[in-house]
Design a protein that fits this description.
The protein is α/β, with parallel strands linked by helices. It folds into 2 domains: 276 residues, Aldehyde Dehydrogenase, Chain A, domain 1 (3-Layer(aba) Sandwich); 193 residues, Aldehyde Dehydrogenase, Chain A, domain 2 (3-Layer(aba) Sandwich), CATH 3.40.309. Helix content is 40%, strand content 19%. Strands 12-15-16-11-10-17-18 form a 7-stranded mixed β-sheet, with helices on both faces. α5 runs parallel beside α6.
């Protein structure tokens, strides 16, 4: 593994001294071994990063829309040119299978392609007033330095989304990545700095920075008035602290939290289609995405058929090292994730559930790597264990007889970002998607919960967020100008 990392680092032309000289150790979930070590930033260094970001913002805000777009296009080109090496890095650091890692990079490039056209479209409106010879003009201004906190499960894509939107709007960026995926963050930020050097856009030196710190020092980003917007992706527990600190100083935050997603299978569903989507949505990234599926409500008339097909589908999933071509599911990120999965399955059994699968698999005799078989838990009702978000390949299945009651149970969990229904009955799908139906951020019909990450991350009614149609508004502030043209 060390040799593989060294080869990737050399091809990406990263600073080898920086990634091997610190006290923040980075481990690979593939084999549980150390792959890098980074300097740990203390509170003074975090404060210094914010100060530098403020100065960078004061310069970058005046750069023309063409200049901002040029930087974003250049970064997209860097991602495209180094896609294979970045994918390998993500595989090593997160345990994703290679195809999922490449998909994350491709969609990050898509973000760059989309956002590069934004600077020329940041327009306001003009409107008449109730008085004559007066008009109102709305303009949009950069908001200031943006702090981005990301989790391990999408180590590149979430930051790319927030950072490119922030840069397009004229803001600077401070990134605090998960301590489990620092190497990917360092590589991505290095590629952005390389893009900055290639474009003639007067890019400030500290336009984009990243800090490696613990939770206590990360709170500085939320509490510092120099940070205009806090973008956080992770657990609700983390957000309560960070968003609370931001709110205390009347700051702004954009968060995407949780992901206890659900699906409904009705009697009119295409069962085979549903099972394929359910299996994929349960196992993707070893169930460790905010868009992974966790709850299934199946009509009692088709319940037995669905459960048997789900068991067969999950039993055939090939679990192995993500470097094996046939592998469909890699390891959990660490021992804590495995312990949480084991405790959840024990809790399900104590609450009257029947568990199929979920056992740990020893791959390559790596004692510190945690490979598991996907699990299906048949539950008598939606218990406390089912309501608790679990980042693991576990699907809790329950019977229902009345569609409205199933939808109420879906809405009873505030972390639901995506809800799915499998049905060929237009009345059922219409009710599910309507104002009387699910209150999730995304509702899919005859489709699973994966592939819609960006839509879900633009906020949930309970998480706070922006419109997916105009996401840039969260990164800017409006100014209304009153013009009196009376003579």
């Amino acid at each position: 593994m060390h040799l593989r990392i060294a080869e990737i680092v050399n091809r990406l032309k990263l600073d080898t001294d920086y990634i091997s000289s610190g006290n923040c150790v980075d481990f690979s979930p593939v084999n549980g071994k150390e792959i890098a070590s980074f300097p740990f930033h203390d509170s003074e260094q975090v404060l210094k990063a914010v100060e530098r970001s403020v100065h960078a913002y004061e310069e970058w805000r005046y750069v023309s829309p063409d200049g901002r777009a040029a930087l974003i296009r250049a970064f997209g080109e860097e991602l495209r040119a180094n896609a294979d090496d970045l994918a390998q890095l993500i595989v090593v650091e997160t345990g994703k299978i290679r195809e999922d890692a490449l998909t994350e990079i491709r969609k990050s490039i898509d973000v760059c392609n989309y956002v590069s056209g934004l600077p020329q479209r940041l327009t306001g409106v003009s409107a008449p007033t109730e008085s004559s010879n007066l008009s109102l003009l709305e303009t949009w201004l950069p908001i200031g330095p943006v702090a981005i906190i990301t989790s391990f499960n999408l180590p590149l894509r979430v930051w790319t989304m927030h950072a490119m939107l922030a840069l397009a709007c004229g803001n600077s960026v401070v990134w605090r990545p998960s301590r489990k995926t620092v190497l990917t963050a360092f590589a991505a930020n290095s590629l952005l700095r390389r893009a900055m050097a290639k474009v003639d856009s007067d890019c400030p030196e500290y336009l984009s920075q990243f800090v490696v710190c613990g939770h206590e020092d990360a709170v500085i980003l939320a509490d510092n008035p120099g940070i205009a917007l806090l973008c956080a992706t992770g657990s609700p527990a983390m957000a309560r602290t960070m968003v609370g600190k931001t709110g205390m100083r009347m700051g702004r935050s954009l968060v995407a939290l949780g992901g206890n997603n659900s699906a409904i299978i009705t009697p009119d569903a295409d069962i085979d289609l549903a099972v394929r989507h359910l299996v994929k949505s349960t196992i993707v990234d070893c169930g460790q995405r905010c868009t992974s599926l966790q709850r299934l409500f199946c009509h009692s008339s088709v319940y037995d058929e669905v459960i048997e097909k789900l068991k067969r589908g999950l039993e055939l999933i090939y679990v192995n090292s993500p470097f094996e071509r046939r592998t469909e599911i890699g390891p959990l990120i660490d021992k804590e994730a495995y312990d949480n999965m084991r405790l959840a399955l024990e809790g399900a059994e104590n609450e009257g559930g029947k568990v199929f699968g979920g056992q740990r698999l020893m791959i390559g005799n790596y004692d510190n790597a945690y490979y598991v078989h996907p699990a299906l838990a048949e539950m008598p009702e939606q218990t406390g264990t089912v309501k608790t978000e679990l980042l693991a390949p576990v699907l809790f299945a329950m019977k229902y007889d009345d569609l409205s009651e199933a939808i109420k149970k879906i809405n009873d969990v505030p972390q639901s970002l995506i809800s799915c229904i499998f049905s060929n009955n237009v009345k059922e799908t219409g009710y599910f998607s309507s104002i009387r139906g699910v209150m999730s951020n995304v509702a899919t019909v005859n489709a699973g919960s994966v592939g819609y990450d960006l839509v879900a991350m633009f906020g949930n009614r309970r998480n706070g967020g922006s419109s997916a149609a105009e996401p840039w508004r969260s990164y800017m502030q409006s100014k209304t100008c009153l013009v009196n043209y009376n003579f």
